[in-house]
């Protein structure tokens, strides 16, 4: 490699790795960073029982841990009740546009539904789906080998018509990198740097593209429900969702 080529390669690597950072959590230490995250607890009642999707779990902070450099959310069953964990960055880390990257190892048994997703920060004021929703990754054990990437908008009445279901060989094994590049004009979804889906709206307005405003991040492991399915494999419990890191950089 000659000198000019060496300088070019080093420069590309430098500028690629030094994209301005908006937010990053490597889940170091032994507890959740409460400057970034809040727990969501309960079963959604009385206003949204089953979290609006007929989900079976009750969220409890006891099932959210930080250990060995990972966020670990564990799903268990005690008696007739399922428990799991959910966290979000609402009112703490909210941002508009960027490249959102998460390295995670999924819970994969039938009936389990890990998700990495985002909601408009104005959801309490305007409601859902007017807030918009960006599903960077959803996996359901009833459809092995597939990853769901979706957008929810008022134009779709909240339904998942703006979605892509992709077969990913080996998705149940080890860690994978899930990414969304979110700009004012489109949103692109990737797994392990492979482009899965690009969303470009029919029109640029609040009904078709409610994504020109700040959003916050959510991580959870749901059980059963409309997408997770009616059958839950209790023999596979406990199930765990591992997140190595999340980082958001400017595009």
UniProtKB/TrEMBL annotation:
Residues 12-251 form the GH16 domain. GO terms for biological process: carbohydrate metabolic process. It comes from the Bacteria. It holds the Pfam family Glyco_hydro_16. InterPro entries: Beta-glucanase-like, ConA-like_dom_sf, Glycosyl_Hydrlase_16. Keywords: Hydrolase. One of its GO terms (molecular function) is hydrolase activity, hydrolyzing O-glycosyl compounds. Belongs to the glycosyl hydrolase 16 family. This is Glycosyl hydrolase family 16. It comes from Gillisia mitskevichiae.
